[in-house]
Amino acid sequence: MSINKKGYVQVYTGNGKGKTTAALGLTMRASGAGMKTAFIQFMKALGYSEQKILPTLPGVTWKTLGKPFFIAKAGSISEEDLAKYGGGCVVFEEGNPPEEYVKMIHEGFQEAKEMLLSGDYDMVVLDEINCAMFFGLIGTDEVLDLIKNKPARTELVLTGRCAPEEIIEAADLVTEMREIKHYYTQGVEARRGVEN
Description:
alpha/beta, six-stranded parallel beta sheet
């Protein structure tokens, strides 16, 4: 049972860095306060540094749904960028995402839903769920239904770029990370312990 009387819905979105980082900070803070948190990562394969520490934090249950391959909507990725993936990217037409990816996300979402609705957790983090909605891997209506039916005392945190307007409207707190300057533009790859 939460130590707080009311749990809110927080959304971290935008093209800037820091969305998952914000959710990780909340999780650490909740753990320090003796709260129980479920941290579910959508669209993230194993290999991120936080995945080593999350399971060791008191009160934290962590799960990743993996990332069987990179996906992109047709027309959203240049031929040059596509070539960088060397066949490891599946390009799909709008409204027709890869079925195996949809199935994986739906199964993970059902598990996340059970965790949230159980009332056993003070906070539930759905990391990169906004991206899953953007790619059509999960319906916005399903996430809205989850928001509507969450236990009153449970904090719900949704991260990822491209949060749908309906999710933004339903949330109590929305932070948009806006990129002003990033060293990626200078060719700096994701760094261990900082970006992954």
